[in-house]
Design brief:
Layout: H1 2-30, E1 37-42, E2 48-49, E3 53-60, E4 63-64, E5 79-86, E6 104-107, E7 113-116, E8 121-130, E9 136-148
Parallel strand pairs: 2-9, 4-5
Antiparallel strand pairs: 1-3, 3-7, 5-6, 5-8, 8-9
Length: 149
């Protein structure tokens, strides 16, 4: 009888601990994935700027990383890099942003700043995230309009 009483407390503590652990695991599984967002830090939408135009990019819910060297066959989950479209609209999700396209600038090196010579007048800028294969990501594009003096 004495032996049984000595085991009750440790067993109750273990069961309580298991219950807390199982509850935490269930909540983690129900947690929604982070929403990916991309934005221009500079310039602001509607800004009047001079050329060269200084751009700074920001993002949330994803890690910005250089594209690995070599022949990439698969993407790294949760990793992306920036692309800027000059006088372009957002591309649909899954569209490949072809390197060397004059209207799209790639930042496969992971940089988040860029200076560009733009002609005077109104311009539309699109900031879009791409995965390691330069495919666009759903919901990861923002556009602004600026005027260059």
């Amino acid at each position: 009888m004495r032996f049984t009483k000595q085991l009750v407390l440790p067993i109750l503590v273990m069961m309580a601990g298991f219950g807390v652990y199982a509850s935490a695991q269930a909540m983690a599984m129900k947690a929604k994935p982070k929403k990916v967002r991309v934005f221009f830090v500079e310039p602001k939408n509607g800004a009047t700027v001079t050329s060269p135009v200084h751009m700074k990019f920001g993002s949330e819910g994803i890690e910005i990383s250089p594209v690995p060297a070599g022949d990439i066959k698969v993407t790294r989950p949760g990793m992306a890099h920036y692309h800027v479209g000059i006088d372009q609209a957002c591309l649909p999700p899954g569209k490949n942003i072809v390197k060397g396209t004059p209207s799209w600038v790639h930042f496969g090196d992971g940089k988040d700043v860029f200076d560009s010579q733009l002609t005077p007048g109104k311009h539309k800028l699109a900031l879009q995230l791409g995965d390691d294969l330069h495919n666009t990501m759903a919901g990861a594009c923002a556009t602004i309009s600026i005027t260059v003096k």
